[in-house]
From TrEMBL:
Gene3D superfamilies, per the entry: 3.30.390.30, FAD/NAD(P)-binding domain
Protein name: NAD(P)/FAD-dependent oxidoreductase
Domain NADH-rubredoxin oxidoreductase C-terminal, chain residue ranges per copy: 314-376
InterPro entries associated with the record: FAD-bd_OxRdtase, FAD/NAD-bd_sf, FAD/NAD-binding_dom, FAD/NAD-linked_Rdtase_dimer_sf, Rubredoxin_C
Keyword vocabulary terms for this entry: FAD, Flavoprotein
Cofactor requirements of the protein: FAD
Tree of life domain: Bacteria
Domain FAD/NAD(P)-binding intervals: 2-295
Amino acid sequence: MNYVIIGNSTAAVGCIEGIRSVDKAGKITVISKEPHHVYSRPLISYLLYGKTTEQRMKYRPDSFYEDNRVTPVLGTAVTKVDYENKKVVLDNGDEIAFDKLLFATGSSPFVPPMAGLEEVENQFSFMKLDDAAALQKVINKETRVLIVGAGLIGLKCAEGICSKVKQITVVDLAPRILPSILDETGSELVQKHIEKQGVKFILSDSVAQFSKNSAQLKSGGKLDFDVLVVAVGVRPETKLAADIGCKVNKGIVSDIHCATNLDGVYAAGDCSESYDITSGQYRVLALLPNAYMQGEAAGINMAGGEKAYDKAIPMNAIGFFGMHIITAGSYDGEAYVVQTEQTYKKLISKDNLLKGFILIGDVARAGIYTSLIRERTPLDTVDYELIKEKPQLMAFTASERAVKLGGAKE
């Protein structure tokens, strides 16, 4: 059996390990535009910050490909998938045959049309290891940085370079930071914390016109800068899949076995859609844990095993300048809120289920809440009043504790 994986990130690792749990002998080829060993993308800000190294960023040991008998084809792009003849065509002219194919193509930066953007010399994205390396080369203690985008990518960039530059200004059209994962109260708390580090925010505004080293804002203000980082958002890489007839909405559409509408073709990770059990909708969930689980399920099913990917939820675990944040699920329902000057807890329940949560500052035992959401545990079967205040296993029945502690089967 010839397995080909397009992409070399978390979903690809899940797929490799999933395949090898079933098929020890099949040939696995991983193809990636990036030349690097598989690494953890969320750590690129810590690389700039000086908290980690390229070696420590690796998502698996140096021997990972060899140990799993994988042929890595790195620094090479797939230009075309010939589905009829079951082969992929590379940008160097090579062709690789496949019996089963996984799209783990991830996402790419979304750069909206902005007047004068082409005049800006030092402009960067912040999604890949090479982006961080390129940015590192041009910044110094006198550098003024403008970041367009106050989402996860923009703010992680700000954290990574804050101690290395003179000034950081973040501009966003939204009225608050991290609007995709936090409510107003949470956004305000995190913004104040980041501002204490010297980062300046200009919200509910956007750039009307760029010149080489300045940005004219729609509000009338002007910002001078030396380096521009565009972190407005990302888009799933779906073109290769769409070109061969895979069904694509915002991401590649697949079922709970991660199979697309084409026989032998699968999709996993940021390029694909997942069924969000908290909202009941199919959507792109660009999250590392989900990418691994989806990739693993795809690999097992590609190899002839049986594995359902049916517990996907939106989830983020992130930190900024020492302030930790974990969010999960959806926020439609009845809220239980506890707030202090440095911490924030919001639990959302609906229809006797925990649907989502926001934890800022104190994130201890967030796994209890995540488990309640993923397992769709009826709240009347646990001591929810205790869990709301102090998440702990004692709030579960003895039999459920045994399962969660790994000592019994469900």
